[in-house]
What we know:
Elements: E1 9-15, H1 22-26, E2 31-40, E3 47-52, E4 62-69, E5 76-82, E6 85-90, E7 98-110, E8 113-126
Parallel strand pairs: 2-8
Antiparallel strand pairs: 1-2, 3-6, 4-7, 5-6, 7-8
Amino acid sequence: PNQNSDISHAFRRCERISCPNFQQCQTMPLRITYYQLSFQTNIIIPAQIFRIGPSPAYSGDNIIISIPHGNEEGYFSTRKLNSFTGAVYLHRQVREPRDFLIDVEMKLLRQGTFTTFLARIYVFITANS
């Protein structure tokens, strides 16, 4: 997945090399990428904090984007910007400094096959400077 370089910083990436147990393996992410994002509590809501999409993208690609873990309190939302780009928004004001760990899952439908990519994002909300 690609990222907006001005707001996010990838610091680790894990890729699946082989698939010995095909059925179980197909549902696992092909790639897990880790990001750290930092924002101040006075960030204007809603704020687009992250973009995800296949790189390269091909015509006919279609994605499904979701937050399977880390959004239990509903601070974040996702939106599909087009058939191959999704975005994550902070859509509730965070009043006090706090940290979140959210999993953003992108399922890519390409030529009849679904592939899963996972972005594990550490979101740090800091006090206004």
